[in-house]
Write a structure and sequence with these properties.
The longest helix is centred in the middle third of the chain and has 33 residues, at 536-568. The termini are far apart. The chain is an alpha/beta fold and 909 residues long.
Length: 909
């Protein structure tokens, strides 16, 4: 048994503040709590959130989440008192006033673990604690008597991590046919004996098997568009034929998702089809993400050796603890607690990843232990690779190894493929992007800290060996001086730009402000204008900037040629590691040359006629009236055209699947947004209806008496809806400003009724963790924006009401206007809105036992949008009071949802 820690504890929520001195808990004012925290270190849980509640951002103390991350690295815990209690196997506190006493007990439990002889995460703890002691981590002195010094010196983290091993190249997959009876048999095995036989899932799985047939013609893959209603079981539906094909062919299937939540689900579900490891120890299933998601060991080493200071240095030590126990080094959505980075406020987590594409590959001393290289090599030998849309597209466009590019792909959450392609194939010449290019070429300047190295440092041996290559590097360094540098925004504001690129950005800024008619200037939002009809001086500056970019690209191309020559006729000193490093440098050079070419094409267009395939505009990006970037943007009018040629055409089989792939009975829009129309093929279509009884288990309530723009009425409606539902409300907003206004008006009142309210853009917690908290507490409610409209999986009682503050109209941007004009005007808008409504409604019913209401606070909801909801779903237009009665009826047992359909006021056909 562990004893509670005899330290004062503080808990603050929207309902009040409680302080425990010794062993007595009392309510106190915010000022008293702040004073107490300043006098002596207090036990806290999630210090940034407590600071937010108290309105005192400098609050610090003994945060139990930091202690948990030290004691149990790579272990999941919801960062609330209830969540911590569950993680530690303790009884959860009954109310807010019981939380301070719980914090003392939880601290005692964690400290007792450090004394225990069977502490599974003991390795490395003593050494890390010594470093944290020097950094004055508040918990270090408390823990020091309880973490015993090991008999032998502990190995440094970088000596403990496993190395990857070279493996032979996997042969190309065999051309096999998988028959429908085989698919059905595999599906039956995956779902398990005694599982309910779902006809929709069986037919869906058979259709999914069609994409694994041999390709009939070069450049003409099998393409399947599969609409699968919620509850069909689509994950096992496509994993059945995928696992069967991988087994028979020896090939790799890529499953791509848009959200990290689905990636986690896929990792769990794949365990039914594949073991965790093969007999040789290799993994048949691998999760792959972009480089920026993984811990960079070189960045971590720099941080541990003085590259980080203050609180960031403590974060680096806790991340090093995690790295020793992590499954795959995934920092974003992996087994690193999502809340860890937010405890330290600044972008420490991002600084420990490779955000800038600066990897030196084999030149890194940790190359053989690199988490990214582990994942890349494992995926080359895997049967199933779980990735995301952006990575699949980038890998297809500029993957380092052509043999590893995906050829059998399932795009789950297929309705997001369009927007992922829109982002992947776009070009943006902005100040921030140009600075990143400068840093990649030049390296650290002036008093810059960190391990960043420029082109000359990364290829010093090449420069000394190859004279032409050395001259190309020197020319690139000289030309890069024309790129924007630190302080560029201030210089533009003062009218003193330096160099042709900054001069152009200054002209872009002036033109955008001069032309703005959106009202964004006054509201503090970003503003934009078309890249058309620009004055002569702007066009002239664009030509000068294009010349400066060409002067950078030319030596980079020459350098790439010299690297190819060295690889073709290698010197004696070039070992395998050096060859790998030069291959990596070639890949990075090609990427930057392509980027520069895209920027030049964008600038060349400014003085002439527009290209009908592209949409170009100028923009000043602002956040609450503070400018943070300026630049020119180019997007494809139809990004599925490059997607078709880069991703679909080289593939052999591609499946796009989603519960909201098509609009009503019409497949036309789904085909257009799949890219299939740009190739000489006719996609196969498949549809499986949801097995859920929406008529009995869900209602759509359109509230007609909350006027748009009336913030007090909107806040009042949200507060009353949460009270009537007893929590369990997911509130979706189209504007952050309205979200904050509503939260500020109702959070305290709801908390005092035992109904905690959390919110994106208000609470200092990442989105994934907010969803974890919401899922864990049936009394909690959550407010958010687009990120919560899709990909949130909260089955059961924790989510029983979804509220939209208004119809989710598209933002009237220049890009949207162009696509609207090219795709049927208002009909295009309606398709987008119906898709958003369908995605939001899909959060409500996630299992056959779920029940709930979907509320739209819109007095003039167009009837033409009602087809967004599943057929048979009752739709009722009513006042707020009537809606509240129906919500309360579901809660108190007089369940309106139990009424037969004939008794309803309106039902979708």
């Amino acid at each position: 048994m562990s004893e509670p820690v005899a330290l004062p504890a503080l808990h603050a929520s929207h309902a009040g503040t409680w302080l425990r001195d010794g062993f007595a808990t009392r309510g106190c004012s915010k000022g008293e709590a702040v004073t107490a925290a300043a006098d002596t270190p207090l036990l806290l849980l999630n210090a940034p959130l407590v600071a937010n509640r108290l309105g005192y951002p400098d609050l610090s103390g003994l945060d139990l989440l930091e202690l948990f991350a030290f004691v149990h690295p790579a272990r999941f815990a919801v960062p609330t008192a209830k969540g911590l209690a569950h993680a530690l196997g303790m009884e959860e506190p009954a109310a807010d006033d019981a939380v301070p006493a719980f914090l003392q007990s939880a601290a005692g439990r964690l400290i007792a673990t450090c004394e225990s002889g069977d502490w599974p995460e003991r390795e490395g703890a003593w050494s890390t604690l010594q470093s944290l002691l020097r950094l004055r981590w508040p918990w270090a002195q408390v823990l020091l008597p309880y973490v015993r010094k090991p008999e032998r010196a502990e190995r440094w983290l970088f000596a403990r991590l496993p190395e990857w091993e070279e493996t032979p190249e996997r042969p190309q997959p065999a051309q096999v046919l998988i028959e429908e009876p085989e698919v059905e048999a595999r599906l039956a095995r995956l779902t398990g004996e005694g599982a309910e036989r779902r006809e929709g899932q069986r037919l869906y799985s058979r259709d999914a098997g069609s994409v694994f047939a041999p390709r009939p013609k070069r450049g003409v893959p099998h393409v399947l568009l599969a609409q699968a209603g919620t509850g069909i079981g689509k994950t096992l539906g496509y994993l059945a034929p995928a696992s069967l094909w991988a087994e028979k062919s020896g090939g790799t299937v890529w499953v791509s998702t848009f959200t990290k939540n689905l990636q986690r689900q896929l990792r769990r579900e794949s365990g039914r089809a594949w073991p965790a490891a093969r007999t040789d120890g290799s993994r048949p299933v691998v999760v792959r993400k972009g480089r920026e998601n993984y811990l960079c060991l070189l960045n971590l080493e720099d941080a541990l050796q003085g590259g980080f200071g203050g609180r960031a240095a403590i974060l680096a030590q806790l991340v090093a603890r995690w790295a020793a126990f992590s499954q795959d080094g995934d920092m974003i959505g992996g087994d690193l607690p999502g809340w860890l980075g937010t405890l330290f406020r600044k972008r420490g987590i991002a600084a420990l990843t490779d955000q800038r594409g600066e990897c030196v590959y084999a030149g890194c001393p940790h190359y053989r232990k690199c988490f990214i290289e582990h994942a890349a090599r494992a995926s080359a030998q895997a049967d199933l690779v779980i990735a995301n849309h952006a990575l699949v597209m980038v890998n297809a466009a500029r993957g380092r190894d052509h043999a590893q590019r995906p050829t059998r792909i399932v795009f789950d959450e297929g309705h997001h493929v369009f927007e992922a392609a829109d982002s992947t194939f776009a070009a943006a010449l902005t100040g921030q992007e140009a600075i990143e290019l400068r840093r990649w070429i030049v390296g650290p300047e002036k008093n810059s800290r960190g391990r960043r190295r420029g082109l000359a440092a990364r290829l010093a041996d090449v420069a000394s060996y190859d004279e032409a290559g050395g001259k190309a590097i020197e020319a690139a360094l000289a030309a890069a001086q024309d790129l924007p540098s630190d302080g560029w925004l201030q210089r533009l504001g003062e009218g003193t730009p330096f160099g042709p690129l900054e001069a152009l950005l200054g002209a872009v800024r002036a033109a955008t402000y001069a032309r703005d008619e959106s009202g964004g200037q006054e509201a503090g939002y970003g503003i934009e204008t078309e890249a058309a009809g620009l004055d002569g001086p702007v066009v002239e500056l664009a030509a000068q900037a294009a010349g400066a970019l060409a002067a950078i690209r030319s030596p980079l191309l020459r350098l790439g040629g010299r690297l190819e020559a060295i690889l073709a006729d290698p010197p004696d000193w070039l070992d395998a590691q050096g060859r790998a490093r030069i291959e990596g440098a070639r890949h990075s050079l090609q990427w930057r040359c392509d980027l520069l070419a895209a920027w030049e094409a964008l600038l060349d267009r400014l003085g002439g006629p527009g290209d009908p395939e592209f949409v170009d505009w100028l923009a000043v990006e602002r956040n609450e009236a503070r400018e943070f970037d300026i630049g020119l943007h180019r997007h494809w009018l139809d990004p599925m055209k490059p997607f078709a040629h880069v991703v679909l055409e080289p593939a052999h089989g591609v499946m796009l699947t989603s519960a909201t792939l098509k609009d009503g009975p019409d497949w036309e829009a789904a085909i257009a947004r799949s890219g299939a129309g740009h190739l000489d093929l006719v996609p196969r279509m498949s549809e499986a209806e949801s097995p859920f009884d929406y008529a009995a288990n869900a209602e759509v309530l359109i509230v007609t008496d909350v006027q748009r723009g009336d913030i007090p009425a909107l806040a009042g409606a949200y507060g009353r809806i949460v009270e009537a539902s007893g929590g369990g409300v997911l509130g979706l907003f189209t504007a952050i400003r309205r979200l904050r206004a509503v939260h500020g008006r109702i959070a305290d009142r709801l908390a005092r009724s035992g109904l905690p309210l959390y919110s994106q853009h208000v609470d200092p917690i990442d989105t994934g963790t907010l969803v974890d908290i919401f899922r864990d507490d049936p009394a909690a409610s959550l407010l958010g924006t687009d990120a919560l409209r899709d990909g949130v999986d909260v089955p059961g009682h924790s989510l029983r009401c979804v509220v939209m503050e208004q119809v989710p109209w598209p933002r009237p941007t220049i890009l949207h206007r162009a696509r609207r004009a090219a795709n049927g005007g208002s009909a295009y808008d309606d398709r987008l809105i119906r898709a958003r409504l369908a995605q939001a409604f899909g959060r409500l019913i996630r299992s056959k036992d779920d029940r709930g209401h979907f509320v739209v606070l819109s007095p003039a909801f167009p009837s033409r949008l009602l087809t967004a909801f599943p057929a048979g779903t009752p739709v009722i237009r009513c006042t707020l009071d009537e809606a509240l009665q129906r919500l309360a009826g579901s809660r108190d047992g007089s369940d309106t949802l139990a009424l037969p359909a004939a008794a309803r006021e309106d039902t979708l056909p």
